[in-house]
Structure formats: structure tokens, C-alpha cells
Model the fold of this input.
Amino acid sequence: MEYKDVIGHDLIVKSLKKACENHKMSHFYIFEGQQGLGKRSVARVF
Done:
């Protein structure tokens, strides 16, 4: 799975990609929300 495969989280994906590209990643991220929204999928891609 890649970033392009994530559907419906454009702003989040853009923010995470930018953090990676600029080497400005935090030491942790919290993926919060209702069940079935794709939190785990986004976290795995990240």
C-alpha cells in the first residue's frame, strides 16, 4: 500500500508526506477516530 492508495484523507496524507520530505517528523503521531475510517491503513503507509 502507498499514499496514493489512501482514499478520503487527502489533507492528512499531504501533511504526513510533507513531514517526511522535510525530515520534520514528530517522535509519535496519534491516529484517532471512529472504527473503520482508515486510521491503521494511513499509519501503515506512513
Q: What stands out?
A: The radius of gyration is 10 Å. The chain has a mean pLDDT of 90. Helices lie at 10-21, 39-45.
